[in-house]
Every structure is written in C-alpha cells, then in structure tokens.
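# nightly structure sweep
# worker-07 picked up a monomer target from the shared queue
# config: single-sequence mode, recycle default, output format = structure tokens
# input follows
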Amino acid sequence: MRTSELKKLCLTNEINAAINLLKKGLAELQKIDGANDFYHLPLLLLSSGYERLIKCLLCLAVMDDQGNIKNLPFKISGREGHDLEALLNSLLSICEERRYSSTFPAAKADIDLLTDDVHLREIVVLLSEFAKGDRYYNLDIVIGRSGEKSKDPNRSWDDIEKAIIHQQPDILRRLNDLTQDIDGIYKEINRELVKVLEKFARALSRLFVYADFGDFAKQISPLVHDSPPPPFKYQLLTPLLQEKFV
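# output follows
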C-alpha cells in the first residue's frame, strides 16, 4: 500500500473511532442519575472523541491530494496536544480564513454556536482541562502534584449543570421539592447537555462537506452523515442524532 493510501486509511479509521467515542460518551452521559454519578467515563469518552474529530478536520484542512501535510496543524506532545479549546480555536481560524460562514445559511449559525454559545464553550473548557490532566485529579492530590489550576472535573461538571438548572426555572423548582423524582430531574438536565453536545458534533460534521477541506473530506463525509450529499439539497443528520439514547 502506498504511503498516501495508508495515511488516508488511517485518517478514515480515526474518524470512525471519534464518532464511536462520541456515541458511547453521549450514551453514558444519559445513564447518570441519582444513583450513578460516575461522570469520569462520559468525560473520558467525549474529550477523546471531540479531540480526535477536530484533529482529523485540521489534518484534512491542510492535507494535499497525495495525503501530505507540510505544516502540522496542532501540537502532538504534552498537555498542549490535548488542548481541545486551542484545537477548536485553530479550526475556527481556518474557517474564518476560508470564509466558511458565507458558504450556506446554516454555516453562520454553526460558527456562532462554536464561537459564542456559553454552555458549549464551558463544556469545551471542561473537556479540554480534563484531557490535559484533570482526569488524574485524584491521583495528583495523592502524590502531591496538583497545581493551583488543577480542578476536580466532577465539580466543574456540577457548575455546568447548575448553569443549565438556573436557566430552567421548572427544574430548579423541582430540585427544591423533596417529593420529586430525582432520577427524572437528572435525566432532564442531561438531555439539555446532550442537545448542546449534539449541536457541537453536527456543526463539526458539516465541515466535511461544506468547508473547503478538499475532495477527500467530501468523499469520507458519509462517515459522519447519513448519506452522501446530493447536488443541490442536503439535509444533514449525524449518526449521533439518528441513534436514540434511553
């Protein structure tokens, strides 16, 4: 197998891995309830899935027809290599350079989401810090390696949940009512978080087709969409949105 073919095969495998990690992560997130607060697993799956997917998009953005990458588009070592926030910002910079937001009506909405959505950016920061080292928060405390910036990821996720709750007066009222079903409230909060995460995945998925990332990006777009794009009209639906998580 030629080097160019091997590179494209490996990139295809990496995208498949990213999508499967995201699907598993969203499924695990929706298992959280009053008796199960093991956030570590969905955080581990989601941080890895989004990191891989964005890195694949960055590679596609700079890859030539032969699969060559002259300038590596992201860091590959240390904490910086897992900085999801920096990776997303790099991707947004490329989209701005190529005027992606003007390519079709939903593109601007996607860029606005990726740039300005408060809940999404909070989640991105959390996943970024988790990937860079907070996933070892407890061990770092034990061996005395925790720094001032080290945070308990469970508490960070609690903060995001609280922000969701305060925007949903009905959920807040029910939380303060001891007669309410706590498991049902957890699931409702998680549904709101999943909506944000699915919008994130959908916005990234559209880039395979509509961003100027080369022919290979379009060729492999069915990996993240339900069908290849027809000539004029294309309704996007990521596998994440096709599958119902109970």
